[in-house]
Amino acid sequence: MCPALPSSPMCPPRCQGCILYECFIRNRTLSGVSAMAIISGLTVVFHNTVPPAMAGLALTYAAHVTGLLQYTVRLFVETELNLLSVERINNCSKKLMPEGRAAVSAEFGQVKMKLADWPRHGSIKFKNVCLRYRDNWPLVLANVSFRISHGENIGIVGRTGAGKSSLLVALFRLVELASGQIKIDDFDIASVELETLRSRLSVIPQDPVLFAGTIRYNLDPFGRCHDTELWDALEKSHLKSKIVTMKQKLDSDIESDQMSVGEKQLLCLARALLRKTKILVLDEATASIDPETEMAIQSTIHLELRHCTVILIAHRLSTVTSCDKVLVMDNGQVSEFDTPGNLLANPNTKFSQLMTAAQNNRGNVPL
């Protein structure tokens, strides 16, 4: 018997098709063996009336029919899977919402020429921001309002699902706002082309993103920087000593030369330094690296990026104690926004409670 096929979303149609194919194969094999057994039995029973040549021919055909049945079923299953792929592509092309375009407004027309050096300072303002990932889905950000002055180092903390990463989704306009407004240097980002907006922001994700190619290509894929600038960025990110030891140095292949996760993260930091943007976002960038590399990243941020606005989504609470301010998220809302000293001074604040829980559990608090 064929087992019941899983119908949950966790079992994709392709897996269901493979299970169905295996079931058919088993059934066809069993049917073929049964047919040969029946023919053999009839040959023995009617050996006086059935010539040996006809009996052998019948057994030969029965063996071939089994293989043909299996091949036919396989073609049917593969055809169904291919049609499912076409159906999914068609659904995506019709239902997947494209990324939003810049809103054409009078304000945008007046300052369009100034976007060449925007943002000059890097101040960020969220005003009554509401965000949901799909229509009719619950809000992941609800009336979020806060202001980050230029040059501030802001740490964002909160338990899992509190809305920390959703703030970055809104800032990079990966999903358009349900309502509210986000301004950078008092300019609404909804009026900025996505390519322009994202080119003025730098991000270092939790998993370092490197391209297939050389170190030079990963640092400067468009070839805009001189070698001295590349070496300077590597030195500031504490990675120069590693690259110098490589045989081809800047032209060394990332795939052939082994680099640890921490070193790859430092390479992403060097790439961010070369971009010279006014806003740097670290999305739990220190979550999967050793404490030594984390200290190197923090040192570079405080020394080389002191004139930039830095937003740090923290995995370890200890990393935000040196920030200018800490933003505590809870259920998609801003729970607290103050200096670490003021928040820790009050034992009733959520940040103080998170810090106490982290100390009691040796840092094992889901953030």
TrEMBL record:
Transmembrane segments: none annotated. It is a multi-pass membrane protein. Keywords: ATP-binding, Membrane, Nucleotide-binding, Repeat, Transmembrane, Transmembrane helix, Transport. It is found in: Endomembrane system. The keyword S-adenosyl-L-methionine does not apply. GO terms for molecular function: ATP binding; ATP hydrolysis activity; ATPase-coupled transmembrane transporter activity. SUPFAM superfamilies: P-loop containing nucleoside triphosphate hydrolases. Pfam families: ABC_tran (PF00005). InterPro entries: AAA+_ATPase, ABC_transporter-like_ATP-bd, ABC_transporter-like_CS, ABC_transporter_C-like, P-loop_NTPase. Residues 124-356 form the ABC transporter domain. Its main location: membrane. GO terms for cellular component: endomembrane system; membrane. Belongs to the ABC transporter superfamily. ABCC family. Conjugate transporter (TC 3.A.1.208) subfamily. This is Multidrug resistance-associated protein 5. It comes from Cacopsylla melanoneura.
